Amino acid sequence: MIFRVFDKDQLQRLYDVLAVNHIVGPVCKGVNQNSAPLYDFDFVKTFSELKLDYSSTIHSLKRFVLPPRETLCTFELGDDNWRKRLDFNVHEPIVFFGLHACDINGLNKLDKVLNSVVYPDPYYVAKRKNMFIIGVNCSPQPFCFCRSMGSDSALHGFDMFFTSLGDEYFVEILSATAFEYISAIKSREPNERDHARFKEASEEKINNFTCHVDTTDLTKILDLEFQAEVWKTWGERCLSCGTCASVCPTCYCYGIHENVNLDLQGAEKIKQLYSCNLIDFAQVAGGHNFRPESHVRLKYRYYHKHRGFVEAFEESLCVGCGRCGESCLAGITVPEVIASVRGLER
Amino acid sequence: MDKLPFVDLMAEKNRYHRRGDLSAFEYTCQAEITNVYSLTETEKLYQIQLIDREERRRFTFKPGQFVMLELPGIGEAPFSISSSPARHGNIELCIRAVGNLTKFLARVPRGTRVGISGPFGTSFPVKEMRGSDVLLIGGGLGLIPLRAPIFAILENRSAYKDIDIIYGARKSSELLFTYQYDMWRQFDINLDIIVEQADEDWDGAEGLITRILEKRCAASDLSKNTYAIVCGPPIMFRFVCDMLIKAHLPVRRIFVSLERRMHCGRGKCCRCNIGSTYTCLEGPVFDYWSVMNLKEAI
C-alpha cells in the first residue's frame, strides 16, 4: 500500500482532475425537522456541492450498483418467434467521491454474493467494474455500530482512502489509476509525525463510538432463541413496510416481472428490489405463504444478516451503518433487537 | 488527465458462452412446446424440445434438478424436470395451472416458443443408491420431481434392489401419470397408491400416505441399505420423515425436494432462502440432516 499526504487546499485540484468523469458524492439535500442537514449520494456538479464532512447519508449508494428498478432485457416478439436483447445498463465509469468505510464494506459484502464464482450477476459486476472509489474517514454518529460489526475500517475495495489530519489528508492508495491521479496534485511522502497523527486519528474515532452490539456467539444465540417470544413483540411493532431494506447498503433481494408492450411487438423483463419484510415475499403460486406473519419475516431478516451470511462467509451481512434504525417508522433498531434476543435490557 | 477507461462486459473479449460466465447469466435456450397432454383438470404435461440441436445434445441434467421456464412478457418460474435424464434437451415438465404464468401456459398451443434456462440445483444421488432398496414417497404434485429418479432407476433396474413407490393424492381424479403405473409395475416395482377421499370410481386404498408407509416400515429393516426420497406438501414431509426416522432410517439417506418461490434460480434474488440457504443452489434436493439444520424448512 502506498501512502501520501496532501494539503486540504489541493482537494479542489484533485476534484477538477477527476471531473472529466461523472462524480457521485455526498451532497446536502435539505434539512430535517431539527434543521440538521440531510445528505444523500448524488451526481456532483461543482466542487462546492461535495460535502466530505457529511455525517451519514439517508440512503446508501446502492442505487448506483443495484438500481431499485432495472430493465434486465427486452424481447422482440415475432409471430411464432422471439429474440432476447441484453443490456447491463452501464455506459460510463463513475467516480464515487467520499464513501465512508461502512459503504465500502457494504459493496465488498455484496461482491461475495453477486460476484460469486457460480452465476456472477453481470448487471452488478458491470457497474462495479466501472467504479472508481475514494473513501473518506468519518466521525461516528450516535446510531453507528460499524465497529461492532467489524466494518469501521475498509481494508480493500477502494482506489484511495482519505483520513483527515487537521489541515491535511493522509491518503492510502490501492490502485495504479489512483496513483496517477494523486500524482497530478501536490503531495508528499508521510513522515513519522504523520504516522503518529494517523494512528491518533483512528484511536480518536474508535473512542467516539457510543453504540455497540455484542456479536459474541450470535449465530448460536439466534438459533437458540428462534422461538423466543421477543420476536413477536418486535413483529407487533414492525409495519412490514420494507423501508429498512430500501436504505440498507447490503439488502439485495429482488423480484422479477415482465410486461408486454402496448403494440405487442416487444416485451421487457424488469427487476425490482424487494424486501423480505413485505407480506408476499415468500408466497408461492396457489397462495401458500412460507412466512405469513410479520414477526417471522422480521426474524428472517436478522437470521439472514447475522446468522446465515456469517455461516457462509464468516462475516455478518450487516455493516452497522444504522440507517435502517434511523429510517424505521416504528423505531426498530438493530442494536435493540439483538440485545433483546440476547436477553439484555437496554 | 485522461478519463477512466470504460470496462464493457458486453465486448466480445469479455464474452464466452459457458455457464457461470457473466454473459451467460441471462442466457436462455429457445425451446418449443412440441406436445401438451392433460393429465388432470389442472395439470398438464408439456413436452419441450430445445430448438438448437447442439444445445439439445449438450443439455444434461441430474434427476431432481429444475429449469426456469420463461414466456417473454408473461414471466419466468422454476419447474422440476419430470423426464428421463437420458433424453437430454427433450424434457417434460408437468405443470399445474395455478399462477399467472402457469395459467397462461395452460392456454398456449403446441409449437409455442418458450425460454429454458438451467438446469439448476442439486439432485437425488441415484448413483449412490445403487445396490440398495429405494423408497420413493410422493404426495400430490410430489410425484412430478420423483418421476426423473424413477426413470433413472428403471433404465438401470438391475443395479437396484427393492424399489417401492408410495403415492398419495387427495382424490383419485388428482392422480398423475396414471397411464404409466402398469409400465412401472412391469419393472418389478411395488407401487402403492392411496387416496384421501375415495369416490365410486376408486377401488384402491383409502386414507393418508402414512398408512401405507407404516406397513412398509414394519416390513423390513430400514436402518441398513435403504434410501428414501420424499416429496410432497409441507405437512406431508413432517409426518413421513418422522416415521422414517422412527424406523431407524439414517438421516443422511433421506432426501427431500423442497419448493420455494424463485425469481432467478441462480442464488441472487433471495426469494427461495431458508435462513440464508438458497433452495436454488444448495437445494432443491436436501438430505434430511440439512433440513434438520434449517429452521422452518418443512
Describe this structure in words.
The complex is a heterodimer of chains A (346) and B (298). Chain A has 346 residues and is α/β, with parallel strands linked by helices. In chain A, 33% of the residues lie in helices and 22% in strands. In chain A, the strands form 2 sheets. Chain A has a 7-stranded mixed sheet with strand order 1-9-8-7-6-2-3, sandwiched between helices. In chain A, strands 5-4-11-10 form a 4-stranded antiparallel sheet, with no helix packed on it. In chain A, helix 8 packs antiparallel against helix 11 and helix 9 packs across helix 11. Chain A is globular and about 65 Å long. The model of chain A has no long low-confidence stretch (mean pLDDT 91). Chain B is built from 7 helices and 15 strands. The chains are: A alpha/beta (346), B alpha/beta (298). At the A-B interface, strand 4, strand 5, helix 4, helix 6 and strand 10 of A face strand 4 and helix 2 of B.
